[in-house]
Amino acid sequence: MDRANPGARLAQLAERLRGARRVSVLTGAGVSAASGVPTFRGAGGLWRSYRPEDLATPDAFARDPVLLWEWYGWRRETIAGCKPNAAHDVLARWSQRGDATTIVTQNVDDLHVKAGTAGLVRLHGSIWELSCAARCASGVAPWRDERVPMPRLPRCPHCAAPARPAVVWFGEALDDRDLRAALDATACDVFLTVGTSSVVYPAAGLVDQARRRGAFTAEINAEATPATTLVDLAVQGPAELVLPDVDRLL
Ligand code: APR
User: Fold this and answer.
1) Which of 33, 67, 206, 245 is the most buried (most CB within 10 A)?
2) What is the pTM of this model?
């Protein structure tokens, strides 16, 4: 690999993608950064002084559901005004070419959905869906709620217990079907990780899993991450520029 020559790295990635029968892409918050969605870590990543690891937990919700809804309300208001960018568009186009490309995302903003991504695996749920925090029998399935702004404390329409965002918090298990689909996606020829700090598991472990299963692995990210030294090829740069550049070489 030629670390000094970014053009050569893009050409190498494009060549691998051209020769691949099955491609899997894992995305994170960096893919939506150019759309105006704040990332969790790195510059501008914090809401007030809270770390997501302290806020996005069942305990934090049980302690202060109104505070949690303030955070989610702020994020929903921000995301409501955001549109998919060139990175989402390229990945959506790749996903529409049969079932050869699988997009797995940690993002809850649904911008991949808005871009028209086919067969998307949403590992961490959607910020536009709610579920019953008491897990009442009739409110078990998440429901869509796109109200902006939200009431201070939205309620389950079935049992009137507080409702929560239908997203996966720290300490919670991923949905079985989504996790299985993500693990299936590691059986591929090229596994590409884009715009994620690669620190939150199990998503962060997928690239290593793909590598051990024989995939060529690559990362596109604005800065170095724990995955950078693990992958076969790392491209440092903004996803909304790098992905269209790679796409043009295909
Ligand atoms: N292009 C590519 N990468 C970018 C860009 C960009 N335009 N802008 C920022 N980045 C990179 C940052 O350098 C950082 O490494 O994207 C990464 C975003 O990392 P995080 O904010 O940690 O987001 P993510 O990896 O998706 O977080 C994982 O943590 O809090 C939880 O559930 C939440 O799904 C989230 C999970």
Assistant:
1) 206
2) 0.96
